[in-house]
Specification:
By secondary structure, the protein is of the alpha+beta class. It folds into 3 domains: 12-123, Butyryl-Coa Dehydrogenase, subunit A, domain 1; 126-235, Butyryl-CoA Dehydrogenase, subunit A, domain 2 (Beta Barrel), CATH 2.40.110; 239-381, Butyryl-CoA Dehydrogenase, subunit A, domain 3. Helices cover 49% and strands 15% of the residues. It has helices at residues 12-30, 33-39, 44-52, 71-83, 91-105, 108-120, 237-273, 285-313, 319-343, 354-362, 372-381; strands at residues 125-128, 144-148, 151-162, 169-175, 185-191, 198-203, 214-225, 275-276, 279-280. The strands form 3 sheets. A 4-stranded antiparallel sheet has the order 2-3-7-6, with no helix packed on it. Strands 1-4-5 form a 3-stranded mixed sheet, covered by helices on one side. A hairpin with a 2-residue loop joins strand 2 and strand 3. The chain is globular.
Amino acid sequence: MPGTYVSAWKDETVRALAATASKFVDEHLVARREEWETDHQVGRDVWREAGALGLLCCSIPEEYGGGGGTLAHDLVVCETQWAAGDTAWGNIVHSGVVAHYLLSYGTEKQKCEWLPAMASGEVVAAVAMTEPGAGSDLKNIRTRAVASGDELIIDGSKTFISNGQSADLILVVAKTNPDAGAKGISLVLVDARDAPGFVRGRVLDKIGQSGADTSELAFNGVKVPASNVLGETTGRGFAQLMAQLVQERLLIAATATASMEAALTETLAYVKTRSAFGQSIFDFQATRFALAEMATTVHLGRVFLDSCVERHLAGELDTATASMAKWWLTEQQVDVIDRCLQLHGGYGYVREYSIARRFADSRAQRIYGGTNEIMKEMVARSL
């Protein structure tokens, strides 16, 4: 692989944070993988330790308890996690998604109430978008938040919610005006620690990402103050969602890139030490050509991702390009990891080897954050 290329957005502070994140991931996530896979969520001590090390809400201003950095700092934490092969820790949603909804659209009171606790790890956050009958088509959600005096009463069901079992703060996508279409959607802050009528359903039994807390949620007449609407103005939720989904898709693209880079590095080490017919697997021309093709794809992916990151940091990343990055890089992730697994032979299908876990974990990347088919539709509409 090209050894001289360094992402321009990874300055000295970003690289230093990556070193801290790498040690944290190895000690608290990778070393305890079986524990998290059994529990289907990471422990609260992990969140608090991450907060103490400055690994949460890195791009949130210091005045709200964050790290005062840019999204580059959150991105490198997420990249480091996925490069190590961990998919259990839901920090992408917590720091990369919910924190930025609050920062971008929350009132001063909402930001001061939630962001410092999120940065310390005392509060874990989730966003509840998807429903049993509404995935990528958010306009068709059925969850309602009906006004009653100075309160909102929330009724509805959500599914595939990351951090669903552990979340203290849930940002719920609901219709506050069912007759207004997209303009009737609002984002509502629910304190899950004190929400009679809120029920955490089952943790979903997935074919990959076994340690990740992915849950069903139910809201049965949950009452919250009307002031819990994000920004305190109803009807802005759909526009807020569309604006922030650009960043979410970039985060997914970054994890896809980091994962396939690591998979290729692991596979190179394996084929150089594994022998067949008197020579290493690496010495077979078919292997070398396959690795050359994958190395080219991975490098192209990194350069494309870096371009998107730099544009986002400059405030110039558009929806179509973010959609391109999400669909193309996750497709390459799945393909590259599949080919790497093949080069491991039978051992590649054994969970003892990280390539087997990467194979199972990568498949969902093409689905969440907007399916890749929806991503292509977004790109096509821009043409």
